[in-house]
Amino acid sequence: MAAKLTAKQQAFCEEYLIDLNATQAAIRAGYKPDNARQVASENLSKVDIADKISELQAKRSAKTEITAEWVLRGIKENTLKAEQDDNLAMAFKGYELGGRHLKMFTDKQELSGPNGGPIQTDSIFEFIPVGDDA
Known about the structure:
Blueprint: H1 7-19, H2 22-28, H3 36-45, H4 47-64, H5 68-84, H6 88-101
Helix pairs in contact: 1-2, 1-4, 2-3, 5-6
């Protein structure tokens, strides 16, 4: 049985669904702005709160009949229409959204190699100093 959420935690869950901004949800739920970011992070890491957010999202999805399938179908249909209309910018955006859904792209950059070591490269270019130090 899930633990009972406090009034603020319940409000946080409901506010989080508005814009998926945890810090702003914490503030709107009544937490102090000075530590809202920390509280938001802690709240999202709590299993009972995460479960409540998932439950609320599922209820909202059922009520609005907006599902991931509905969104993806719309992206696909609009992408195909954009291609037919020679609207390449819109078609490209559709493909980008589809690719993001499939996790084909990543926004994260690895700034170190294995175990925090240097990044290994097979560069055919050698370092050539430029300027007065050359």
